[in-house]
Protein backbone atom coordinates (compact mmCIF):
# COMPACT_ATOMS: atom_id res chain seq x y z
CA UNK A 1 0.00 0.00 0.00
CA UNK A 2 1.39 3.43 -0.95
CA UNK A 3 0.19 6.55 0.87
CA UNK A 4 0.99 10.18 0.05
CA UNK A 5 1.02 12.87 2.74
CA UNK A 6 0.53 16.61 2.97
CA UNK A 7 4.15 17.02 4.04
CA UNK A 8 5.65 15.47 0.90
CA UNK A 9 6.17 11.87 2.01
CA UNK A 10 5.20 8.72 0.15
CA UNK A 11 5.10 5.80 2.59
CA UNK A 12 5.04 2.17 1.42
CA UNK A 13 3.33 -0.21 3.85
CA UNK A 14 3.47 -3.99 4.23
CA UNK A 15 -0.07 -4.67 5.36
CA UNK A 16 0.72 -8.23 6.50
CA UNK A 17 2.79 -6.86 9.36
CA UNK A 18 1.33 -3.33 9.42
CA UNK A 19 4.81 -1.82 8.99
CA UNK A 20 6.04 1.09 6.93
CA UNK A 21 8.80 -0.53 4.88
CA UNK A 22 9.90 2.40 2.72
CA UNK A 23 9.67 6.17 2.78
CA UNK A 24 10.19 8.62 -0.05
CA UNK A 25 10.36 12.38 0.50
CA UNK A 26 9.93 15.13 -2.07
CA UNK A 27 12.99 17.46 -2.00
CA UNK A 28 10.87 20.51 -1.08
CA UNK A 29 8.28 18.71 1.04
CA UNK A 30 5.58 19.52 -1.53
CA UNK A 31 2.19 17.99 -0.74
CA UNK A 32 1.45 14.69 -2.54
CA UNK A 33 -1.72 15.10 -4.61
CA UNK A 34 -2.04 11.81 -6.49
CA UNK A 35 -0.32 8.40 -6.66
CA UNK A 36 -0.41 5.79 -9.40
CA UNK A 37 1.35 2.43 -9.76
CA UNK A 38 3.22 1.95 -13.03
CA UNK A 39 1.70 -1.03 -14.88
CA UNK A 40 4.92 -2.20 -16.55
CA UNK A 41 7.36 -1.45 -13.74
CA UNK A 42 6.10 -2.86 -10.41
CA UNK A 43 8.78 -1.03 -8.40
CA UNK A 44 7.81 2.37 -9.85
CA UNK A 45 5.30 4.88 -8.52
CA UNK A 46 4.01 7.92 -10.39
CA UNK A 47 3.12 10.88 -8.21
CA UNK A 48 1.91 14.43 -8.60
CA UNK A 49 2.74 17.23 -6.17
CA UNK A 50 1.35 20.61 -5.13
CA UNK A 51 2.94 23.33 -7.26
CA UNK A 52 4.41 23.65 -10.76
CA UNK A 53 2.26 20.82 -12.24
CA UNK A 54 5.06 18.43 -11.23
CA UNK A 55 4.73 14.71 -11.93
CA UNK A 56 7.54 12.37 -10.87
CA UNK A 57 8.32 8.69 -11.35
CA UNK A 58 10.03 7.12 -8.34
CA UNK A 59 11.76 3.75 -8.04
CA UNK A 60 10.84 2.44 -4.59
CA UNK A 61 14.05 0.38 -4.55
CA UNK A 62 16.09 3.63 -4.86
CA UNK A 63 13.81 6.15 -3.11
CA UNK A 64 16.21 9.10 -2.96
CA UNK A 65 16.30 9.54 -6.75
CA UNK A 66 13.42 10.44 -9.04
CA UNK A 67 13.68 8.36 -12.23
CA UNK A 68 11.92 10.98 -14.30
CA UNK A 69 10.24 14.35 -13.69
CA UNK A 70 7.66 16.04 -15.90
CA UNK A 71 7.73 19.81 -15.33
CA UNK A 72 5.37 21.75 -17.62
CA UNK A 73 5.60 24.86 -15.44
CA UNK A 74 7.16 28.11 -16.70
CA UNK A 75 9.12 28.25 -13.42
CA UNK A 76 12.79 27.30 -13.51
CA UNK A 77 12.97 23.48 -13.94
CA UNK A 78 13.20 21.62 -10.63
CA UNK A 79 13.43 24.91 -8.78
CA UNK A 80 13.33 24.58 -5.02
CA UNK A 81 12.46 28.25 -4.53
CA UNK A 82 9.99 29.13 -7.31
CA UNK A 83 6.56 27.57 -7.10
CA UNK A 84 3.30 28.13 -8.90
CA UNK A 85 0.05 26.98 -7.32
CA UNK A 86 -1.06 24.69 -10.16
CA UNK A 87 -0.97 20.94 -9.73
CA UNK A 88 -1.96 17.72 -11.48
CA UNK A 89 -5.15 16.53 -9.76
CA UNK A 90 -5.71 13.22 -11.59
CA UNK A 91 -3.64 10.79 -13.66
CA UNK A 92 -4.47 7.79 -15.83
CA UNK A 93 -1.94 5.37 -17.31
CA UNK A 94 -2.83 3.16 -20.27
CA UNK A 95 -1.23 1.00 -22.95
CA UNK A 96 -2.13 1.21 -26.63
CA UNK A 97 -0.37 -0.64 -29.45
CA UNK A 98 2.65 -1.41 -27.29
CA UNK A 99 3.24 2.12 -26.00
CA UNK A 100 2.35 3.47 -22.57
CA UNK A 101 0.78 6.92 -22.18
CA UNK A 102 0.06 9.08 -19.15
CA UNK A 103 -3.00 11.35 -19.21
CA UNK A 104 -2.96 14.18 -16.65
CA UNK A 105 -5.64 16.67 -15.62
CA UNK A 106 -4.60 19.73 -13.67
CA UNK A 107 -5.81 22.94 -12.12
CA UNK A 108 -4.31 25.08 -14.90
CA UNK A 109 -7.03 23.75 -17.28
CA UNK A 110 -4.59 23.12 -20.16
Condensed summary:
This protein is mainly beta and 110 residues long. The chain is built from no helices and 9 strands.
What does this structure look like?
The protein is mainly β and 110 residues long. 0% of the residues lie in helices and 50% in strands. It contains no helices and 9 strands. It has a 4-stranded antiparallel beta sheet, with no helix packed on it. Strands 1-2-3 form a 3-stranded antiparallel beta sheet, with no helix packed on it. A two-stranded antiparallel ribbon has the order 8-9. It starts with a strand and ends with a strand. The mean pLDDT is 88.
Structural class: mainly beta
Biggest β-sheet strands, sense, barrel: 4 strands, antiparallel
Average pLDDT confidence is 88
Question: Compute the gyration radius: what is it?
Answer: 14 Å
InterPro entries: Vps15-like, WD40_repeat_dom_sf
GO molecular function: protein serine/threonine kinase activity
GO cellular component, one term: late endosome
Amino acid sequence: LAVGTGSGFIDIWDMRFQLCIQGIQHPTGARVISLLRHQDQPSSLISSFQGNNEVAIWNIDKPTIRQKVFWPSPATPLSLTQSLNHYIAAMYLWKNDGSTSLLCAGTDMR
